[in-house]
Design goal:
This protein is of the alpha/beta class and about 475 residues long. The chain is built from 15 helices and 15 strands. An 8-stranded mixed sheet has the order 4-11-10-9-8-5-6-7. β5, α8 and β6 form a beta-alpha-beta unit. Bound molecules: pyridoxal-5'-phosphate. The site of pyridoxal-5'-phosphate (PLP) has 13 residues, from α7.
């Protein structure tokens, strides 16, 4: 057993985190080379005299970051990292190549995919072609920096009707995805070097932007009704990023009392709330939840929307609704940047919205996703019963499953052997906890009902096998 990290129990840093950083460093500095087999969770926990949970949490995190790779029926290996100097000769690690998972993936519960079956491809293609065919010479020019006016007007109308957001087209900026929106907001609010609060766990795509922009991230714990507002009140946060309509990834709704307290915090401190309403359209029980922005009376909420869930992720089309006071700052400082979303896509989307197709699409998709969602819950209930608990089940395109007595790592490994791919949400924690290693994330937007049922049946059989130690 070559792995002998110095773990210090007296430190406030949890043991799994110390172990995780130690192994990561060994890999990065080339002492643990690709193709080396890691000790099993049981072996290492016995060797280090720590719990299995500790080792599992560290391994899980390293796997989700790509440092380790789990090979069915073989074990856990140090993965190939794209650093040529680390493993110049692939032939040195033949074992690794032999052990790559050979099983075809039959059902992939990847999050982020959308429904193909009912997608209005014909209508969308027509809008694309009409956009290009429009009679004037805009096609041969750069577009408006803030985004096409027609599209901003359609978005402004849509937001009022469907999300209760009052805005003018002048306040809307078109962006190429939520991360682009966030990078711009960080600069408009001058967040560099300042504290920003976000839900823990929360969307890693946005966390990466905060890190990259040099912000200090304050992770805010979650209660049953969303993030802890007291925590924000006690922090030095200048802005808070939040997913109030459908917390990512846990799925709870921010309660009305917390919404009011959060707004009050912003009014009193001059802080900003960045509301990411990424899938607010898809709620399957009860009334749609109005946006937090619709309650904002002092223009402290910056609202983010995206077409990735409601239409197509490949468009890379999203938007920001900025408070008018920030628009001045934007115009003075940032309007030197050209628009990064193709005007062809923007104009086509404007036509699609104007013709009523977008609203029809949303209505159709809500029903379609509801059917899939019901099939998912029904199959889990039928095949897994009380062995798992469903977390966040009323909206959106994913759910979490809380596992009992089985770890994420064990189930995902077993799943791969049987051709069903599930995902760990571990990456969504800034400070991963062993608890994070007891969830799996199931995205269902791009799967058919048959695939969903098949996937859950396969997972249930994996659970049984892991439980009896097969
Ligand atoms: C919380 C959250 N916000 C936003 C997005 C969409 O990002 P984008 O607009 O870059 O596609 C996602 C997609 O996974 C998400 O989970």
């Amino acid at each position: 057993m070559e792995l002998t990290p110095f773990l210090q129990r007296e430190l406030s840093e949890p043991l799994y985190s110390q172990l995780y950083y130690w192994i990561k460093k060994e890999i990065e500095e080339g002492r643990l080379l690709p193709g080396i087999k890691m000790p099993s969770v049981r072996q290492l926990s016995t060797h280090l005299k720590v719990s299995r949970n500790t080792v599992e949490a560290a391994y899980q995190q390293l796997q989700s970051e790509g440092y380790l790779e789990s090979v069915p029926k073989s074990g856990i290996w140090v993965a190939e990292i794209e650093k040529p100097s680390m493993h110049p000769n692939e032939a040195e690690h033949p074992v690794m190549q032999e052990c790559k998972p050979s099983r075809e993936v039959l059902v992939d519960f990847e999050y982020g995919n959308v429904d193909l079956d009912k997608f209005p491809l014909k209508q969308w293609k027509k809008c694309l072609s009409d956009a290009v065919g429009q009679e004037n010479n805009w096609l041969f020019e750069y577009s408006e920096k803030q985004g096409e006016f027609e599209l901003r007007r359609e978005i402004s109308n849509y937001l009022l009707q469907s999300r209760g957001v009052r805005s003018t087209p002048e306040q809307i900026l078109i962006t190429a995805g939520t991360q682009t929106s966030m990078a711009l907001i960080c600069r408009i609010l001058a967040l560099q070097g300042n504290t920003v609060a976000m839900e823990e766990p929360g969307y890693s795509g946005v966390r990466s932007v905060f890190e990259d922009q040099g912000c200090q991230i304050e992770p805010v714990p979650l209660g049953k009704d969303g993030l802890s507002v007291e925590h924000i009140q006690l922090s030095r946060a200048k802005a808070v990023y939040v997913t109030p309509s459908h917390q990512f990834p846990f799925g709870m709704i921010l309660s009305i009392s917390k919404r009011m307290r959060l707004l009050k915090w912003a009014y009193q401190t001059g802080g900003y709330i960045i509301e990411d309403d990424y899938d607010g359209e898809f709620r399957y029980r009860g009334q749609p939840i109005p946006s937090l922005k619709s309650l904002d009376e002092e223009e402290r909420v910056i609202y983010l929307g995206t077409f990735s869930k409601s239409f197509l992720p490949s468009l890379r089309l999203s938007y920001i609704v900025l408070p008018p006071s920030l628009m001045d700052h934007y115009s003075r400082t940032f309007a030197v940047y050209n628009q990064s979303v193709s005007p062809i896509i923007q104009r086509a989307m404007a036509l699609f919205m104007k013709s009523g197709e977008f609203e029809r699409h949303i209505r159709r998709m809500r029903k379609q996703y509801q059917r899939k969602h019901q099939a998912l819950l029904r199959s889990i209930d039928q095949y897994m019963g009380t062995k798992v608990k469903i977390v966040g089940e009323k909206s959106g395109l994913h759910i979490l499953l809380k596992l009992k007595g089985v770890s994420t790592l064990e189930l995902s490994e077993k799943g791969l052997q049987k051709g069903v791919k599930v995902y760990s949400p571990m990456n969504f924690w800034l400070n991963p906890t062993p608890e994070g290693n007891s969830y799996i994330m199931l995205g269902f937007g791009g799967l058919s009902i048959e695939e969903i049922e098949k996937g859950v049946r396969l997972l249930a059989s994996c659970l049984r096998e892991v439980e009896i130690g097969e």
